[in-house]
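User: Here's a chain of 157 residues. Predict its fold as tokens.
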Amino acid sequence: MIRSWMVIGGVTFLVALGSNLITPKDVKWFKHLQRPRWLTFEALIPVIWSIVFICGAWSAYIIWEKDPGSQKTWLLMAFYLLVEIAIVSYNPGMLRLRSLKAGTIIGATGTLLGLLLLLTVWPISGWAAALLLPYVIWSPIGTYTTWEMIRLNPADQ
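Assistant: Prediction complete.
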């Protein structure tokens, strides 16, 4: 029998793969950009995003199990999916457009959606909301970093 956590984890994994729609030329552009001096944790970013995705999927699982299959739960699952799509659209959007400004806008949009999702699930489950904290904390850091990079790379806005 297929369990809800398997479906939620599978969808999370497949959507996360969507961020791999980046061409090597786009990545090359990004690697040549100047970064803020305080950005010393760049090597940890893949680990941070892995934690964010795992926590987000776990949060969705908790919400699903509270009221499986109800219309409200399906709407919340759509909201989780929207937030994940916002997350994974950051890299392809910014890199394909070669625009740090676009990355900042996408990142800020994802931050707001993540915060709204957290506030929406809080009354249903404190644990589900707490599991969204890694994203709600990390997303503004990533967005701010991209915004700072605009100042360091004015030609790449």
